[in-house]
Amino acid sequence: MKKWSMFVLAVILVSCLSAPVSLQAEEDLEDKTAYVDVSVATLWSEPDITRPVDEPSVGNPVDMWKWTESMTLDQKLWLVGNLQTQALYGQEVTILEERGDWVKVAVHGQPTPKNELGYPAWMPKVQLADENYFAALKESKSFALVTDTTAWLYDDKQHQGKFKEISFNTKLPVVAQVGDMALVATPSDGMKWISSEAISVYDSRQDIPDPTGQDLVETGKQFLGLPYLWAGASGFGFDCSGFTHTLYKANGITIPRDSSVQATHGTPVAKEDLQKGDLLFFAYNEGEGSVHHVGMYIGDGQMIHSPNSSSTVEIIDVFESDYYSSEFSGARRYID
Fold this sequence. Notes:
Keywords: Hydrolase, Protease, Signal, Thiol protease. Residues 1-25 form the signal peptide. It holds the Pfam family SH3_YKFC_2nd. The chain is α+β, with helices and mostly antiparallel strands. 22% of the residues lie in helices and 32% in strands. The protein has helices spanning 2-16, 55-58, 64-70, 73-78, 132-140, 213-221, 240-250, 259-262, 284-287, 322-327, and strands at 33-36, 40-44, 83-88, 92-99, 102-107, 119-124, 128-129, 143-146, 150-154, 162-167, 171-178, 181-185, 191-195, 199-202, 233-234, 237-238, 267-269, 279-283, 291-299, 302-305, 314-317, 328-333. Strands 17-22-18-19-20-21 form a six-stranded antiparallel β-sheet. The protein has a five-stranded antiparallel β-sheet with strand order 6-5-4-1-7, with no helix packed on it.
């Protein structure tokens, strides 16, 4: 009865809190906090440069599988330089600039020297919500962390109506837990149900257990075979640094978003001292130039990584590869 009382109170709370602030009010747009309102928001280098093949990724809702699986290799390669990063459902952003139907945002929780607020790039305005009730619940409630590669939100507890497929590492406020289901808040569509088997629930980010190297390895192995996506940072596709950033983030540790910056933080590690979970970096000019790739060491001379647009997440014998061995530039450790 107590759990259902919480549910009723939550419904009343949602009904009573003020209506969302419109993102169409251009004079008030800049420096506003908003929340991603699609399963995965893809962020672009410039506004309004998308192609017809990108349509599934720029509306609300999005269809990430349709987008990624419909592109040819050449179409995927075109994304290099035109995409910057991705943000997940319910993730907080700060709006920096507006241009027509597009906004430039800083994605919170993705550290970068480009902007102290978070990773900056452009996204369609329609993919954002600014609702008081969701913001309030994010501040006051425990949260569900999606631990499956992707998971479905449902309109009902009986799984009869699928609402939205969301990504690994998505975090949503928990309103109630009933049996094998959890009721979570969404940015603009009230409350939805998710299987308890697909999530972990924490009272705060500090409650996420400190991971071991093996924990990170097991997290990464879930994604073996997942196709690479430039700028990808979700269970629908990763780039190399989006992969390592997300593995750590889902285990409670925030590291920089890009490989070149990941390579300058953490603790330097000698090749002979590598441990599971250490990040391995690769640079041009036989390891002496700028960093262009990152993977995670999993022990026994092996690395798991998301290599390039023609490949999938894979495990390789890293130092037996002429290419990776010759471009190895160092390693960093982000866990004790």
